[in-house]
Amino acid sequence: MCVFFDPNVVRQCREDDAEDVKDKFTANFCAWFKPGADRYDPSFTAAESGAKSQLDALFGDGGTDGPDASTDDAEDLFRR
């Protein structure tokens, strides 16, 4: 993690001149990035995976392998 990273700020960056990163899942570049050895907090990952597992338990796994039974029932309503 960067020394400027702060999840409690709006853009998650304490550097005012840094560009806003819109897509955080692809490669990006920041001229202000400075790695900090003590900045990684595993609780962020644990909280994320815990929230995902709770959503999966509530709504299903969200897989896109194909239509599920509820989709089939809805489709049956509109078939002629």
Characterization of this structure:
With 80 residues, the protein is mostly helical. It has one domain. The longest helix is centred in the middle third of the chain and has 18 residues. It is elongated, with a radius of gyration of 20 Å. The model has no long low-confidence stretch (mean pLDDT 79).
Features of the shown structure:
single chain; mainly alpha; 35% helix; elongated
Number of strands: 0
Broad structural category: mainly alpha
Radius of gyration: 20 Å
Count of discrete structural domains:
1
Order of helices and strands: HH
Q: Flag low-confidence runs.
A: none
List the helices and strands and how they pair.
Layout: H1 42-59, H2 69-78
Entry summary:
The protein has 80 residues and is mainly α.
